[in-house]
Amino acid sequence: MDTIASLFSFITKPVSWIIVQFHSLYGKVFGPDTGWAWGLSIVSLVILIRICLIPLFVKQIKATRAMQTLQPEMKKIQERYKSDKQRQSEEMMKLYKESGTNPLSSCLPILAQSPFFFALYHVLNGIATGKEIGFIDGPLLESARKAHIFGAPLAAKFMDSPSKVEALGASLTDVRVVTAIMIVLMSFSQFYTQRQLMTKNVDTTVKTPFMQQQKMLMYVFPVMFAVFGINFPVGVLVYWLTTNVWTMGQQMYVIHQNPTPGSKAQAAFLERLQKHVTHSKKTRNRRETNVVKAIVAKGRDRNEFERKFINGLSKAGLVAQADGTVIVSDSTVATENEDGTPTTGGGAPKRQQPKRQSKSQRQSATTQGAAKSDAAAKPADDSGSDTSTKASLEKEPQDAAAKDAPAKAQPKGGSKPGSGTRSKAKSGQRKGQQRPKHPSSKK
User: Fold this and answer.
1) What is the pLDDT of residues 16-29, one digit of tens each?
2) Strand, coil or helix: what is 332?
């Protein structure tokens, strides 16, 4: 570790200068020789470094999500060129180039933070050996050697001998208890950060080897921190515990505010956003507007959580616009099916085709219709006017004579009234039951 730290000695002076500046500030409050002044100086160094690394962290998030998107294509290339490793590598590089992704982008924050970590280790190791390094010299070196955090010197390690610990003015028990607690907290924070990433912020719709790798790292990294932690000085443990807590909080913020599409975190985020937009009838800020705009732009490529969000707005009488705004709908709002196709969410029911009837059902319906029309017409005939009654009385003799004439002219063997000859209706005559004659025409 000392050899590796010496490789980054070029950055030792900047790191030591930053620590000295923070120490002069906190020393006025807590005292220059206290562990609080030196411990908070290291914590402030971590915060300053992590703030400067935020742009790299954003690139890391984008690179990680891009890699998740490319996993199905990468799996196809591996299966297609299983026996040709060189061609497989060429196709992988071609895929990275076309998509504009870089596998190393996900490691940028760790790589950028490594020089500061080893430079701090080099500074603290110089304090432990009483060696002036960087801007920590003379009185500052003696002040740093006297500083204790919960009874453990900044430069003490878990594996130090009792004589070395006594030279720093502390007991071996205090050093090992404090370092053990810090190692456990450091490993747990790393495990929890990786676990919440795997359980909440991973697209569960795509099962890829990338997920298996992340799951393996969830258990490997804490073990690595525990193994290497016993050789870290207390000041370095303070540094690493602080950066792990920062990473955990940063990851929680990203999961809550900008989750991975298709993850459980996105489902919870869109559910909260739907409640807010439904309550206020509009998006409240630019971030919400950008989220709605991105979902609308996807169209049929929306995942199930995004379709559920759009349908929820539709049921509330709201419509998401292409510019990310939300307006109140004045008409029936169309929702979407699971495949993204629109479907009517309410209003008038769809027109249905009538059921096909059999021949017997049609004949029965015709007979019933004719009976109903005759029944409706009969009262109207009975309640006829006086004029129609007089006309029927005047025609009574003629009707009687006309009635007798056909009876005399009927040949022998002819058919009787009501027989089969009557059933032969003329063209256009309605079949079925005929309307009876007026009662006044009968004698």
Assistant:
1) 899 999 999 999 99
2) coil
User: pLDDT tens, 305-346?
Assistant: 889 999 999 998 899 888 888 898 775 444 555 445 555 444
What's the average model confidence in pLDDT over 379-396? 45
Helical packing angle, 172-200 and 234-257, nearest 10°: 20
Please measure the distance between the N-terminal and C-terminal CA atoms of the chain and give it in whole angstroms.
134
Give one DSSP letter per residue of 277-306, joined into a string. HHHHTS--SHHHHHHHHHHHHHGGG--HHH
pLDDT bracket for residue 435 (50, 70, 90): low
User: Helices in 53-171 by DSSP H: which ranges?
Assistant: 54-80, 85-99, 108-129, 139-146, 162-167
Closest of 205, 212, 214 to residue 69, by C-alpha? 205
The amino acid that residue 27 corresponds to is: G
Question: For 138, left (φ over 0), alpha (ψ -120 to 50), or beta?
Answer: left
Cα-to-chain-centroid distance, residue 139 = 56
Which tokens go with 167?
A: 């030279």
Which amino acid is present at 419?
Answer: S
Q: Containing H/E element for 189?
A: helix 172-200
Query: pTM for the complete prediction?
Result: 0.65
